[in-house]
Design brief:
three-stranded antiparallel β-sheet
């Protein structure tokens, strides 16, 4: 049972490349939205508490199995243990929650075996859940990468200056090429500027291409200019390098949601 909304598939479903904290942040926002919608639509307090616990199960499940994005599976005995309730109390809450879920077998559900879809609560509404989640990720990713670039610009400038005094003639051409490449980056820089947020989130492949160019220049200079024991000798943005999915998500040519 996958999402009916292609925007959600692209950002938190089986169409996303995101993982780890980036994905979990989006799932948390989606869960909060589901709770908000259920309460607005009249869900009673007991059912709301059960829904909270089901959404915890949902977030855990989707991390391991994004192909069943809007499906939640649980049983009343497990929920009772987690909540400190009796099983009958949990089933009473499940009964209140029933109109808000897509349940194939109501008899099993009301006996405490939960296998239900959340699509009614996830379905895109006038506030555009898929669009909001997509923008949240884009803005967060852009701000993080731009901050890293701003932090490392001085390392690039210092490295270029250091290379000018190597005194090794055979390396002059390489140093000149690095200086020229850096100059071209500064001249053509468009998306990784502090005041270019909207341009960047509207063209994520272009933004990521610019980030990757800075990363390559930075790493060429650091690797060439410094010995291994230099405290500045480190690759650009090792944290984001570990989150390969964030690069793939940005590089994937997909029109902005909306």
């Amino acid at each position: 049972m996958s999402f009916s909304d292609p925007k959600l598939i692209a950002i938190i479903g089986d169409g996303t490349h995101l993982a780890g904290k980036e994905l979990d942040d989006l799932l948390a926002l989606a869960a909060l939205n589901m709770m908000r919608r259920a309460l607005q639509q009249g869900l009673k307090p007991l059912g709301a508490e059960v829904l909270q616990m089901l959404l915890v199960h949902w977030r855990r499940r989707i991390v391991y199995n994004p192909y069943q994005g809007c499906r939640v599976v649980a049983d009343s005995a497990d929920l009772a243990d987690l909540m400190g309730w009796t099983e009958d109390h949990v089933i009473e809450g499940l009964r209140e929650l029933l109109p808000f879920l897509d349940v194939a077998d109501q008899d099993d559900y009301l006996l405490g075996t939960v296998d239900a879809g959340l699509d009614r609560l996830l379905a895109d509404d006038a506030q555009g859940l898929g669009e909001r989640l997509d923008r949240f990720w884009r803005v967060s990713h852009v701000r993080s990468a731009v901050a890293e670039i701003d932090d490392e610009i001085q390392a690039v400038l210092t490295g270029l200056k250091t290379l000018q005094y190597t005194g090794v003639a055979r390396e002059d051409a390489r140093i000149e090429a690095l200086n020229r490449r850096w100059s071209d980056f500064e001249t053509n820089r468009r998306f990784t500027l502090a005041n270019a947020l909207e341009e960047a989130i509207d063209d994520m492949p272009g933004f990521q291409q610019e980030v990757l160019e800075f990363e390559l220049i930075h790493d060429l200079i650091i690797g060439f200019a410094y010995d291994g024991d230099c405290p500045r000798a480190g690759l650009f943005n090792p944290t984001i390098q570990e989150l390969v999915g964030s690069k793939l998500q940005a590089l994937h040519h997909r029109h902005r949601a909306g």
